[in-house]
Every structure is written in structure tokens, then in C-alpha cells.
Write a structure and sequence with these properties.
Blueprint (H helix, E strand, L loop, with lengths): L2 H25 L6 H27 L5 H28 L4 H9 L1 H12 L2 H16 L13
Helix pairs in contact: 1-2, 1-3, 2-6, 3-5, 3-6, 4-5
Length: 150
């Protein structure tokens, strides 16, 4: 996959996998202790994102651009934070003011960890960002190219 395609697909994939799984855990957290669902987010989010990254690189034959794909996925997760917060807030508590939306959008590098602290996924955000950086170096191996059948 070329660099332009990586910077389109990987951020979308990263945001979808990370915040989608966060939404699933948040949806099913009723009845769990706070420790249980924060631990679930801290462990499950990095594992799922790392696995999703590995499979995406393998499926798109992006082995030559491993770090670009990893950083694009991290960028998608961090940029997707305020968008996720706005959507979560609008659907659960009702409409937000335009000023609140603008505030979270403008301050997105800061609003992503703040939002992650708010919903218990801060540990998952930090570990996922670091894990994708390590996976991008290739120190843990490079996914094999997809085998063509037939």
C-alpha cells in the first residue's frame, strides 16, 4: 500500500478499532466493578489494536512502511478521541453546545487523554500508543506477506 493510502486507511482503522472496542466495553460495563472495566480497557484495547494493526499490515502488504502504518493508526486513535466523546455525549446526555464541541475539537491533543481519563481508558490509550510504536519498529517481527491462493 502506498503512503497516501496508509494515511487514509490506518487512521480510520485505528479510531474504529480503539474507540469501537471502548464503546463495547462501556456498553456492557453495567454490573462490573470499576476496577474490572478499567482493567478490561487497559488490557483489551492494546491487545486488540496491536492484533488489528498486525492483520492490517499483513492484509495490505504494508511491511515496507511499518512505522508509517503504526503512526497513522496512533494518529487516528488520538484524533478520534474528541469525535468519539462528542458522539458519546450527544447520544447519551443530549445535545452539546457548539462551544463545547469547538473546545474539544480545537484542543484535541489535550482533549483525547482528558476524555480517556473521563471514561476509564487512559491506561489503554497510553499502552496502545506505546505498543504501536514498538510494533512499528519491527523489533517484535514483521507480519508475513499475505499468501495468494490459486
Amino acid at each position: 500500500m502506498n503512503k497516501v493510502a496508509i494515511w487514509i486507511v490506518c487512521p480510520l482503522w485505528g479510531a474504529l478499532v480503539f474507540w469501537g472496542e471502548d464503546l463495547l466495553v462501556t456498553h456492557f460495563e453495567e454490573g462490573w466493578s470499576t476496577t474490572a472495566w478499567i482493567t478490561a480497557k487497559t488490557v483489551a484495547l492494546p491487545v486488540t489494536c496491536g492484533t488489528a494493526f498486525w492483520h492490517l499490515v499483513k492484509a495490505t502488504s504494508s511491511q515496507q512502511r511499518l512505522m508509517s502504518a503504526a503512526m497513522a493508526m496512533v494518529a487516528g486513535i488520538w484524533i478520534g478521541g474528541p469525535i468519539y466523546y462528542i458522539l458519546l455525549r450527544v447520544t447519551s446526555e443530549g445535545p452539546m453546545s457548539a462551544g463545547e464541541m469547538l473546545f474539544h475539537t480545537i484542543l484535541f491533543p489535550l482533549s483525547t487523554p482528558l476524555m480517556a481519563l473521563y471514561n476509564g481508558s487512559f491506561g489503554g490509550l497510553m499502552i496502545t500508543s506505546a505498543a504501536l510504536g514498538v510494533l512499528g519498529t519491527g523489533w517484535l517481527g514483521v507480519p508475513a506477506k499475505r499468501e495468494r491462493k490459486g
